[in-house]
Amino acid sequence: MIIKNKQINLILAPLSEVTNISFRILCREHGADLAFLPFINVNALVMTDKITWGWIKDSEREHKPRAIQLFGSDAELFKKSAKIISENKLFDIIDINAACPASKILDEGAGGALLVEPYRLREIVRGVKDNFNGVVSVKIRLGLKRNSVSEIADAIGSIVDFATVHGRTVKQGYSGKSDWDAIFEAKKLFNCPIVGNGDICSINDYLGVKDKADAVMIGRAALKNPLLFNEIKSGRKSDDKKRATACLSWACKNEKSLRLLKRFCTCFVSGLTGSREMKERINRCKSVAETKLYVKKVIVSLQGK
Fold this sequence. Notes:
Elements: E1 2-3, E2 6-7, E3 10-12, H1 21-29, E4 36-41, H2 42-46, H3 50-58, E5 67-71, H4 75-87, E6 93-98, H5 103-107, H6 118-131, E7 135-141, H7 149-156, E8 162-166, H8 180-189, E9 194-197, H9 203-209, E10 215-218, H10 220-224, H11 228-234, H12 240-254, H13 258-268, H14 275-284, H15 288-304
Parallel strand pairs: 3-10, 4-5, 5-6, 6-7, 7-8, 8-9, 9-10
Antiparallel strand pairs: 1-2
């Protein structure tokens, strides 16, 4: 699909507390055509929360088009957020999260809970469209407990500029398999491009579904292999040791948070011989310095094999 005069085929999914600015840049350097500042609370944005606005300012380091994903339940706060973003020319794309299955978010009437009343979601989408001079998208699932895509499409399918469909219901969470046939059916119901999402972990996975959507979003698999986007584009799989070496080196250079450093490094060693022991050792580390010291030893070991 074409967004802001750019061909968009592969998108990094917005993953809360994980896809920070450094990781988004890494994935874009390795083939992701688009990435999102993930899961920004509309109330925090409007109330100029310091941490939230720090993330927003960091996003200026990204290449255009820049995208932000908003979540919440209050249509007025969505409108105000859209107006602030538009007036300050902060992002080219606003995505509305109507897919998150976390119980805490559902209890707030946000995320996947917005699918219960599609015309409430329509009010939110319309408010953002009317107050933002850019592209507006929405991320949905197939429905709350059942497939209700037709009802959702009736409500917003002619308003949004594109929609991302995760091929599971909210109730499923991440269990079972993503239903790409249902994503293909959604493509027929919406009057806009459809981005398919769910269970794309390899070149073959992508080749099996690429004709069922206008673009493909990759989430959890990118945490293990940020090079997956270029692998798909080139049709060539990276050598596991070289991939892990490059990604671990990136983490040591760029990540300052102990929680994220551990998260990234334990993902990056997945699939390697001895990965279980590596993950256990990383998780026992008590500081950033200790973690990096151990990870650098792993890098040396991988380079010597």
